[in-house]
Here is the input.
Amino acid sequence: MVFLFSELIDYVDERMDVEMKQVTAVIFLVSFLIWGTSAAQAQTTQKDLIHGLGCDSCHDTEVPQKLEGNGVCLSCHGSYSEVAGLTSKMEPNPHVSHLGEFDCVACHKPHGESEFVCNQCHEFEIKMPEAAN
Amino acid sequence: MESKGVVKENAGGIQVDRRTFVKGTAAVAMALGVGGFLDNIFGQQVKAHEPAPRPTKWDEEFDVVVVGSGTGALAAMVAKDAGFSAVILEKAATWGGTTAISGGVLWVPNNYLMKEAGIEDSLEEAFEYMKKASFGQSSDELIHAYIDNANPTLDYLVQNGHKPKIQVPYADYYHGSIDHSRKLGRSVIPPGLGRELMRTVRAAVDARGIPVYLQTPAVSLITDESGAVVGVWAKSPAKGKISIRARRGVLLATGGFDHNKEMREHFLPGPVYYPSAVPTDTGDGILMGMAIGADLRNMNEVWGWPVKEITIAGKKMGSFDGGGERAKPGSIYVNRFGQRFCNESANYDATTRNFYWWDNSIMDWRNIPAFCIVDSEYRKRYKFGRQKPGVEQPWMNRSDTLEELAGKLGIDAEGLMATVERVNIFAEEGVDRDFHRGEKPFDRLTYGDSERTDLKNPCLGPIKTPPFYGVRVYPGSLGTCGGLRINGNSQVLTPYGKVIDGLYAAGNTAGSPAGAGYPGAGATLGAGMIFARIAALHMAKKN
Here is the structure.
């Protein structure tokens, strides 16, 4: 709660002068108290998240932190090579790259529009699956 | 023992944990019963491929064993058509080696597509051209073998489903510099590039029922009392160590040694960055041949190409800096002093050579790293690090002034500004008085932008519209092209010129028939497929 509140203050800070900020901060604080924990999901709506999971499905800490590596994704999906096996019929296999293993979120973006990064250079006929968005 | 230290190197983007690597090779040596301990890592690598004893009973038997599933695969098809059994061993989990990720081009002088298009050519002229274009590091025997067998090889591929077209607008790589070149037609390319080529070959291999063993590297050659090669030891993922008899011969087609640090250091004249060959190209075939006394040729050579260092999804990589980028008007290469050092519109192999100037005044490579500098007019029209016009990436170092760009990249700012001023005068006059860019027909035909009516020279444009962009460029390679010394039958020879019976090599595992040159697009795969077919035909003739 404290974390999110301070973030909101920062957000407001960029846009308003000090007086307005104080008033708005109070409004936000009140909203917070009413909403309780559901407010945590107000920033990123359910449909923006991969598989429609909640924040704590991935960010398993009291204060959500930026995740490194593929550990969280692979804890459900198996190893990277197992994932590559699932797409082995695709031409080319998007999980076999000359650059080795990618961060899953380089393409499958939990907080934004997913992107097939290979096509930053190549022009493969591969689209990101909707389920992953 | 230096080799006991953990050395993480990151030259050319390759990370090698030396201890793991050495442990790996030592384990192979021990598994083969070689034993002993060598201080010399390179010697240890050869030792790891030492011929092992003949098995009392062969695990498998074939007439022809092909090691490597790139261009060498053609040999298995040819052998099968001649009535012999064949097998293809592939170290990687995927089919096709470097060929499958290549452009899929074959350099075939006087081919049927040229005839259809009315382009005159002759094998005699092609021989003269290739001889000069190999710069003394090949032999008449190998060049004749290439030229005389190129068309039968292409025709054979076409019979098997290959559907190439003339590669437009590719002139021979020394067109305008060496006589008897052609401005178009000798390079033929399938629309789907190397992926398509190797898919076609795979379908033909499967149709013949030729077994392909993936993840099954050959480890060492097996010889008989006379020293002739009669089979290989391989490592099978399911069965472990297996002996495979080769009644007629073994073709080593394992690619080059791009991903073998020790071999690169000991044989190549300078560093190679971001090599483009598949990571399994660690010189296995060459080492196996060395282990039984084969001679080497052309080991100081690569099929060179410059690469731009770009970053995709947080990963640094080398992006081939071909004519579609480097050579276009408004793009120049400079070194850290801000000075140009090459004709940016020459062919990529020749351009790569200009990086290798060891400068004794600074006791360093003067042109490594180098930098590709462009302006916004360039970026409106052409790709930059494979990114389309309009795409901005942080690694492009977008800057409002050349001074700012020089600062970001570590280039001498005064040097860069003086160079750009001079290039802008050249562009206005249409004449590059320093490196003669755009003078040779190759530059203009293949890489120039003929649609630029605003320019006097289709390869030369000014760099004056901010913002400016710049990235590091390095000498890279498509593959090393030195290896086992072969004759015109693809047979491997000893240093005394004696044939090693039963042993053949082709492609980047053999000393290239193109020597120190690169006659045209597809001389790379051409040498692989042509000499693979020659090898199979020779094995088929064996009594």
Q: What stands out?
A: Chain B is about 30% helix and 20% strand.
